[in-house]
């Protein structure tokens, strides 16, 4: 008689009564609801109260890789605990588990996960234990060989495929694997670690000496510190070895002398060895070194439609030919990443020596064709640009790394063009270059394909977030801040405690909307409406006053929510000012970004560049700010109150002002926002987006009422006669015909971004559109002669577009589309 081994594992059965629930300890999941907390009671305060209420021996702590460990160490700071020694691991070959045996019989096994009655984040895993179960079933009437039928085997309902030699009434013996058991383990909040002692506060604690040594050793070796907290298995004692799985790798760890079973050790894995890559197909290019280029000096050129950065060899002079190789890729046309159209600008190019992206500035079209770069050795107010730089450091808790943030010249900023995951290459420079010139939907589809490969499979564990509606934000912060970086890439299932709804997408969508809406609410104190656009939010520099104990926790939480929304293609309820999107993408910040935020401040700085005698201004390296009615002086550099501004140090003064207004003023908040975002999103995968595309992807395309937009537009310049009651200029008529009939929803949103700085539309419509002074500044079309410049230009401070008087509607369409998709969003056309 044939024996069928039945495999299963679907999630839809009624076998809950036959399952067991394993928890971290006896009180990890309790049947009583958590004590209600007010809106102004923050996660750190609740964690402290919980620790005071519980006996010390029952306090637990969770690391990213301990979801299946029943015992967890005590204390909120695992790195500082005496039973958390630091050891080093050794790689062991990874092995793929053999799948259970299969035959012609197939099973769809359903089970219902154990319910939980306490809000928080749960690491959910499924294991099988015990012997296989053998059942004898009868083929029902009407079943033909090869067809499936449903039978009950104990408490489980399974589907069996009738074998070819069986008929109705025949008895079959089926073998079921051990019944799966679902484990829900409650995770606890992980503390933040400040990178520098002066930054302690707001929910971040000082770095322990042990972790400082790890970070120092990594810095001295030129690498990035990375450690993991793992649990020593049962029956493992000092000197014995055991294996652990970390991010797709297996390591052999030796139990240290002061550790034992179920204790935590922080391991420092060896440097990962990249998978051998097949030699890519390359193409050889031969170019002539331009005149004026010195040995070891970089210059740019176009090769196969790509901008590349080449360094002149030491033994080559101008006029001589050199050869280099590039991977063969799809030709995407003469499109490059840059800022300006006519006068040159900042461009992200690829370095031939290591295929990493680097920002360079070309001087003009003519000089660009000759390969000249602006070395930026001399400060230029109109050209200067800076990029944030993140230097990652290990945190006290392995789940929460930290970083130092700096502002470096744009031409020193570098980002990888290759993404490795589990020792496999998910994307390379050629992949990025192929998708770079395509539309937003194509980019999003490509990005989603990358995230699918980063996502942990459901069978390898998922995360369940349980929250209560009456304390939605607090519960959500506690839950998300309990997760490690690997948990951030697991499947999430969100539940509202006490509600029977099944999360088929709607619950998750609602959760993202509600949580982000609360965080961006100006009344909460973390964000403020931008001065020049009420639809954009900027970080509140006084957030430490609004939320003194936990404001940094909220910004790390928001960064994680934004990253997860991008990961899952969800939307958030909050448009940020544009330079925050640039920080996330690593794009250059210029004085024009300062102008968009505070035109008056920008104008005053610009005037200093034309003044002959700065001494009459009595300037030093300080600025005066007023917070909550209290005025204080802020030093832009150390000892700034004793340093006078002169013509010689004016560039440093201007740079310090830009650095402070764009970064240092809210550096701790930006740092945590970016760290949370990069806890889930790999930076190389973001290089396909520009700031406007990132905003549209995170916030979605707006709903635009065209009659409201057109009815609340004013005209000036050559088109002044087009105002109400007067005859419209033909270009104005063409403009609205193009926007209404030829632009889709994405292009309309891009036009809004081009002119107003954001895709957001005021809730009361275009009649209340604001300018940079906070007053109503309606959408404006200013007519100019096309002899002045070929493409439309925008003034986001005034919500105005300068539209040349084109001779045909087709020309207007082509130039307008090129302006808003190339110049504004960061592309240039050769």
What does this structure look like?
The protein is an alpha+beta fold and 830 residues long. The chain is built from 20 helices and 39 strands. Strands 16, 17, 19, 20, 21, 24 and 39 form a seven-stranded mixed beta sheet that branches. Strand 19 and strand 20 form a beta hairpin. It starts with a strand and ends with a strand. Mean pLDDT is 77; it is low at 1-114, 272-279, 329-344, 366-371 and 823-830.
Strand-residue fraction? 15-25%
Indicate the overall shape: globular
Number of helices: 20
Radius of gyration: 30 Å
* Mean of residue pLDDT values: 77
The first-to-last residue Cα distance is 75 Å
Structural class comes to alpha+beta
Helix content: 10-25%
Major sheet characteristics: 7 strands, mixed
Low-confidence stretches: 1-114, 272-279, 329-344, 366-371, 823-830
- Count of strand segments: 39
Summarize the structure.
The chain is of the alpha+beta class. It is 25% helix and 24% strand.
Features:
830 residues, alpha+beta, seven-stranded mixed β-sheet, five-stranded mixed β-sheet, disordered N terminus
Topology:
Layout: E1 3-5, H1 43-53, E2 86-92, E3 120-128, E4 133-138, E5 148-153, E6 156-161, E7 171-176, E8 180-186, E9 192-193, E10 204-205, H2 209-220, E11 228-231, E12 241-246, E13 249-254, E14 264-268, E15 282-288, E16 298-303, E17 306-311, E18 321-327, E19 335-338, E20 346-351, E21 357-361, H3 365-369, E22 385-393, E23 402-409, E24 414-415, E25 419-421, E26 424-427, H4 429-436, H5 440-454, E27 462-467, H6 472-480, E28 492-496, H7 506-519, E29 527-529, E30 536-539, H8 543-546, H9 551-568, E31 575-576, H10 578-585, E32 589-590, H11 591-597, H12 599-608, E33 622-627, E34 630-635, H13 650-662, H14 667-678, H15 683-686, H16 691-699, H17 706-711, E35 713-717, H18 730-742, H19 745-756, E36 779-784, E37 793-795, E38 800-804, H20 809-823, E39 827-829
Parallel strand pairs: 1-7, 2-14, 9-10, 17-20, 27-28, 30-31, 35-36, 36-38
Antiparallel strand pairs: 2-13, 3-8, 3-27, 4-7, 5-6, 11-14, 12-13, 15-18, 16-17, 19-20, 19-39, 20-21, 21-24, 22-23, 22-32, 25-26, 29-30, 33-34, 37-38
Helix pairs in contact: 9-14, 10-16, 11-12, 19-20
